[in-house]
Amino acid sequence: TELVCYRDIYPNAEKTEYMRKSKPIEKFIKCVELINPHVNITASWSTDQDDSDDDNDDGEEESTGGRIHNMECFKEVYYHIMGKGKNGCTSQEIQKLMGVDSNTIRMCMKKLVTSNIVTVKKFDQGKQRHLIYYA
């Protein structure tokens, strides 16, 4: 994150916009650099939980239940799973790699499994059950 003057981002702003009301100084804006600029932010904030199984053959983007997933994200997840080899990969590892919420990862993994690109096996560890994905 970085603090930037208001007029650096909005150079045509009026004085009432960029000045504080309590003190006669300029406002600052906190700028955040995204880890992956190709991830759809509004999709990860979406509260709509409907998943549809419509296949979209245009190859560019896939739209399901109010979420838009870039095909590059699917490819990145697939190559990460394939790189793990015989050990496989859990959804938590993929979530750390991608930097998105668990619902987006779960939907992405569901799409990869239903299209028979990735296989999934259950692994019991004590009282916990993990899903391990193999390519």
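^ that was protein a. below is b, sequence first then the tokens
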Amino acid sequence: MRLLPLALLGSLSLGACIDVPPSVDRCAELERDLGDCLGTATIGIDCETLSERDLSRIEQSVDFCGELQGILPTDGDPQSAACRTLGFGCVSPLTPAPVSRPTRYPVVLVNGIDTSPLFNWSDRIVEVLRRDAGVDVHLATLPPYQPPQKRAPDLWRRIQEIVELTGADKVNLVCHSLGGLDCRYLVSPGGLHWDVEADQATIASRVASITTVGTAHFGTPVADQLLGALSSSDQAALVDAYAAIVGDWFTAEALADDPDLRASIAALTPAQAEAFNLEIVDAEG
């Protein structure tokens, strides 16, 4: 098992010493196979520095895909895991490292559509924010595969807990993917206050800021395709394949049988996003 990453790293590092260029087509195909194995679309193999022998070594590792997956940590997305563990697929920063300083109010990290590594906050992010930046960070892990109307009440309860725990007047929300819609629904005049025993001004007063990360504010065609795939058994198989690639655990059968799951996907369609934006307007301030 431990020989696999060593062989893979060796093949990647030794490639720069060999002048014989590999077949570009073969290299591209191998990169796709490795991406399928690790569950990420981008790996970052440099085809110009690898020889045919290097590619053969990597091919042998891909043949043992199950073992290769087993050595990768589940904390974070597959590409960053491959970078930390195997040393490839790493992305250089585009800007200098920011200057760290604590925030005035606690930071609450809100997860995306589910609690898988792709849509939840990595423990490493929490650790770095606390250790290096001195930020008071808390998690709001909302129920997976439910629409904002059902998740926002849980977010409100979590905010109240954090305010009571820390003694702070309000919090900063950092909301990933679907969590961005939850956070907007939370404070909007057209949102949560109609569903709970709290007025909109009270709810909004507990939120200092909202930062969304990767939220489909205008919807995504992928959501339409997932819902449309239920009309055909062949297309339903694509749902299962897509779910396996992105790291989710829902299936076409679950999508057909679970109304909350369908509603959470539907919330990300362009049509529903347009209706959501008309009703869930921003809170003042």
